[in-house]
Structure prediction request, 229 residues.
Amino acid sequence: EVRLVESGGGLIQPGGFLRLSCAASGFTISDKYMSWIRRAPGKGLEWVSLISSGGRTKYADSVKGRCIISRDNSKNTLSLEIISLRVEDTATYYCAREIYYGTGTSNPFDVWGQGTMVTVSS
Amino acid sequence: EVVMTQSPATLSVSPGERATLSCRASQSVSGNLAWYQLKPGQAPRLLIYGATTRATGIPARFSGIVSGTEFTLTISSLQSEDFAVYYCQQYNHWPPAFGPGTKVDFK
Prediction:
């Protein structure tokens, strides 16, 4: 079964550090483009970061310079680190797999995890 | 960046009725538009991609229509499990962008 399971959320103080993990099963993450997407309370979905199958990374302007996406191929796990956390980083964070469609600059996301909640508050 | 808008913000529907959700892009996205369903505590689910193609395992009551930069998701006969929040997403331009969502709730 293809599955993604996020972990690492919780309550963090502003200015703190966050490391989220996403364990994949049923497929190999290094073969796919993988993203982190978040949903702030009462708001819509926001794409955060991507790592391509070749290891190229991209970031949303809202986290650029504060964020690192990486993967551990031996553990088939995706990670997201964010430093200098802000209240506006409060959200449920999802990892998601792209399904290759080839007609746009990116692709739809066909597999998602259930998300992990991050609250940035003092 | 492409800005996606969705309407209405909330749609109140009775089971068995048709639900029509709209999504608009600030510029052409060439049909590179997906729809997702979100339920509390569950993984989001891809419903439609390419504006009109149902994803694997999606029931036929879900359909997508496109007219220029206006996209529509129709649920022909709402089932109890369809009460959720629905998002559209364009993947034609970088970065990928989602709409603010439409909540379908019980009338």
